[in-house]
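It is worth pausing here to work through a concrete case rather than discussing structure prediction in the abstract. The textbook approach is simple: state the sequence, then state the predicted structure, then interpret. We follow exactly that order.
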Amino acid sequence: MLRGFIMVVYANRYEEIKRLGHGVTGNVYLANDIKSGQKCAMKFLKRPHRGDRLSPLMSFKREFETLKGLNHPNIAKVLDSGYDKNFGEYYIVTEFVQGEDLFTATENGTIQDSEDLLVQTLRALNYLHSKKIYHLDLKPPNILVVRGSDNTLTIKIIDFGYANFFESADYKARAKEDPDNVNILGTPAYTSPEVIKGETPDGRSDIYSLGCVFYTVLTRGVPFTSEVDDPHEVHWKHLHKSPPPPIAINQNIPPYLNDIIITMMAKEADRRPLSCEAIIKEMNLFKTTPYEIETKETRMSYLPERGALIGREVDLKRFRDLYFKRIKLEDYSFTPFLIVTGGSGSGKSRFLSECINYVRGEFCTNILSWKEFNPTFRTLKRAISSEVVIVYQ
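Step two, the predicted structure:
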């Protein structure tokens, strides 16, 4: 993107194209990855308020840590992260999902279309919950719908800025200090009762929010509103009121789907379905052609992309110590190399991936493999048949 006739390029790699919107933890831009030639989404950390400099960055880091280990066809993939010194910006790069938000995408669709999208979302949440990850900000803008060339609809869940927020040290400290005045996170129209009450949420909180989302999709209106746009009034209604049944607003909704949505929105978590898988099974009781609990593609998501890092714990500690001294303490009194040796299948490549992920989690920019760094190290590689980890600034 040209700003005053100047092309804005972040980290010497990402050309800004246009602003897409904003998420929980930052503003989102469409960018072109010069290295791959692909479009991507870049989220930049929001400028912290005075006196609150640690919490936003920690939330941003938590979002990256949540996303980096996920690999599911219905969840946006994380690609990179870093800190651009020229602009003073922390960023996370994810795949660019070119789709419409769930509410818009279903405006002229059928009940069957909405039900299919509900099942896709349930599979994605089932995957997240199996990893003890809870999104906690499900709403139509965070569920995008992509229309394929064959007219098939695929959902992608985005924006994990509030995922597992209750585990952060900052939130725990605030809750302990003043439990009655902890900010209620999330979007009021879709927030679960236990989040409103400051209780520890789990997967059933996402189930409640998803029930509210598809109530909105099927009836074209949120379950609870406020005439004066007061979030406290909406929160109170989540705790004490029941909305009209979806079928009372849209008579085309099948009775079984109406009942499932109502059960998902039960006030007490114990009265909701135990899992997203259980909801799909409940739907299948009324289907001539039942839904697969998992498709071939989603089943593959449960398989690890790479094996666990075993036998390299000492090497990883040495790398982290080296990184801390060279980058954090800016100690240039030593050579910034760590040479990792071992035969084929000994875990060298897996170790390098772990090093890269660690540095990205610290939002360090210009992460290079030995191939990219300097021809000298390619010669060294051939000479010693080893991998070379470089920590350089």
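Step three, interpretation. The chain has three domains: 9-95, 100-301, 313-390. The CA atoms of residues 157 and 309 lie 28 Å apart.
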